Amino acid sequence: MSDANNFVFPPVPSLSPDGWIVDPVIKADRMIAHFFAANPEQTAIYKGNVYSIQNLIANYQNDPDVLALQVKTALANYFSRYFNNVIVDANTIDASSFPQAPTGTQVLQIYVSMYDPSSGQFDLTKTFGILNSKILNIVSLNNTGLSSSST
Q: What angle do CA 103, 104, 107 make, to 5 degrees?
């Protein structure tokens, strides 16, 4: 294992009572939550460095392939600040695979694999529908199966 893999990346800041998040699995989960909740206009200091799915949807909703590419790029940049060996993929999925999805829904799946010296390589996957710039449902795929949350 190289010394680069043993580098300790910074914790993720939190305004919750948890303070700085250091547990790698919780850190990755919070980062994805930040990606879904963030607004690029919430800062004057870090202009251009706040990654937001909402902003990407607003800018690229009419071109699903470009949206997927922009999501992939944003998540790769964001997760590389906090983890090593980051691999990101983002793809649009045919919405007809989801018969319950309303007509016109775009389905996007994101996959992030990352490495942390304390827990090794681990992954997270989220699949969600987008209709008229609104995220409809977020489904998480992990080692224990599916879990979902509606927005």
A: 105
Residue 19's alpha-carbon distances to 8, 15, 16, 46, 116, in angstroms, are 18, 6, 6, 20, 20
Give the span between the Cα atoms of 22 and 16, in whole angstroms: 14
Q: CA nearest 35: which of 116, 92, 90?
A: 90
Q: Where are the beta strands (DSSP E) in the chain?
A: 84-93, 106-116, 120-131, 134-142, 145-150
Per-residue pLDDT of the chain (151 residues; tens, 9 = 90+): 445 555 568 899 888 888 899 999 999 999 999 999 988 888 788 777 888 999 999 999 999 999 999 999 999 999 999 999 999 999 998 888 777 888 888 999 999 999 988 888 999 999 998 988 888 878 876 554 444 554 4
pTM: 0.84
CA 105/CA 143 separation, integer angstroms:
27
Q: Distance (Å, rounded) from C-alpha 29 to C-alpha 40?
A: 19
